[in-house]
Design brief:
The protein has a single domain (2-414), classed as MFS general substrate transporter like domains (Growth Hormone, Chain: A), CATH 1.20.1250.20. It is built from 16 helices and no strands. Helices cover 79% and strands 0% of the residues.
């Protein structure tokens, strides 16, 4: 019961953080685009966010294993408070470099808190209950993305009603309340490894974890290659949507995406039915290959429809709905497999390595989104080029799942010893 109580506190704290993370991204993107920043300049603002995320997952995994998950959660919240406070300054100070630094701190904060919450699941669920593990991982991941979508909506709302600076201040205050509450209620060091480890142990993962991390890199690069920069600017500039419409639409999409992740065990396996004969086995690498491959379909359909000059608004709404369903299913399987492959005593190290690859993929996708969209003259042609880039990255992710399947089959208990 103590573990469940602690996990509930960590999850609730992570939810508060997630709302501010989504809101801050939308605030920065929409506000600075309105000030005349180009797509590539806006993409550059998030470079530190992802670069520091790569480093943070390596260092954060080691810190979590060495000092416990409370330390990583606490410092994640503190850094997000700092990032929001830094942006509560007059417009003259909001230069590209200054905002990049603030976003860098936010990137560190995001990965510290995410690693803390996801690693703790391994400490709560019995190793024999793989269906329960799939269910709780899906619920956490789905709820996180649903609340991040709510954060997009909150960011657009705060920007419209209060303005950029006051919105950042309000988020810093909310985060401070969450930090103080979680610090008081959580025990000293949940998740601390029983054996001492060095920071280099982050890279001593099983072959299954390494291949899964590589597949994650290309999967999330494929999403951000068109979704992070190109799509919001296309909606605002080309289709003429206002801040409220762009933020609201992306919020609804992310919320739906999160709901799909949460219910994924019901159709991909992992639904813990009372009658064992009525539930599917938990998903494996083979099922990941299938869901990766069919992700090509909505991307190809959207690009073709835009090229043929079909109405862009219904094309994007329908296409993004299909994309959300398939991508969210992929992500849910990924999130389950990394916890399944991770060793219980070094779960923070394994999860840190995995999300280091995730951050690297997001970085690659973000840069590609801004660069490709600008090179192809923005507008419809730029969005099509970004979607084609995304499609190529999806295929690479599917191909990498083939050796992942071999690693899974060649290991005992779906995990081979680190080497």
């Amino acid at each position: 019961m103590q573990n469940i109580r602690d996990y509930t506190i960590i999850t609730l704290t992570y939810w508060v953080f997630t709302i501010t993370d989504g809101a801050l991204r939308m605030l920065v993107l929409l506000y600075l685009n309105g000030r005349g920043y180009t797509p590539l300049e806006i993409a550059s603002l998030f470079i530190f966010y992802e670069v520091f995320g790569i480093v943070t997952n390596a260092v954060g995994g080691w810190i979590g294993a060495r000092f416990g998950l409370k330390a990583t959660l606490f410092w994640g919240l503190a850094l997000q408070i700092t990032a929001c406070s830094m942006l509560n300054v007059p417009d003259a100070y909001l230069t590209v470099i200054y905002v990049m630094i603030a976003q860098g701190l936010s990137g560190i904060a995001k990965d510290l808190t995410k690693m803390s919450s996801k690693s703790y699941i391994k400490l709560v669920i019995s190793p024999d209950d793989q269906h329960g593990l799939m269910k709780w991982v899906a619920i956490l991941t789905g709820s996180k993305n649903t609340l991040k979508g709510l954060g997009f909506f909150v960011g657009a709302l705060l920007l419209t009603v209060f303005g950029f600076q006051h919105a950042c201040l309000a988020m810093a205050i909310g985060l401070a309340i969450a930090l103080i509450t979680s610090y008081i209620l959580l025990p000293k060091a949940p998740g601390k490894s029983k054996t001492k480890s060095s920071i280099l142990d982050v890279f001593k993962t099983s072959s299954a974890v390494r291949w899964l991390s590589a597949a994650r890199f290309f999967l999330f690069a494929s999403r951000d290659a068109w979704f992070v920069i190109a799509l919001p600017i296309f909606l605002k500039v080309t289709l003429g949507w206002d801040f409220w419409a762009v933020g609201g639409f992306l919020a609804i999409w992310i919320i739906g995406y999160g709901i799909i992740q949460a219910v994924a065990p019901k159709y991909v396996g992992g639904n813990n039915h009372t009658d064992a004969s009525k539930h599917k086995p938990p998903p494996d690498a083979g099922r990941l290959i299938l869901w990766n491959t069919i992700l090509v379909l909505p991307l190809a359909a959207i690009a073709t429809a835009l090229y043929l000059d079909l109405p862009p608004t219904p094309t994007l709404i329908i296409g993004l709905t299909l994309f959300a369903f398939i991508f969210a299913t992929n992500s849910a399987i990924h999130s389950y497999l990394i916890i399944r492959y991770a060793d219980a005593d070094t779960v923070a190290l394994n999860v840190g390595f995995y999300y280091m690859a995730n951050a690297a993929g997001r970085l690659a996708g973000t840069v590609l989104s801004g660069a490709v969209f600008q090179i192809y003259q923005q507008g419809k042609s730029g969005l099509i080029a970004c979607i084609i880039t995304s499609l190529i990255l999806v295929l690479l992710s599917a191909i990498i799942c083939i050796p992942l399947r071999a690693a899974e089959h060649n290991s005992s208990a779906n995990s081979d010893p680190p080497n």
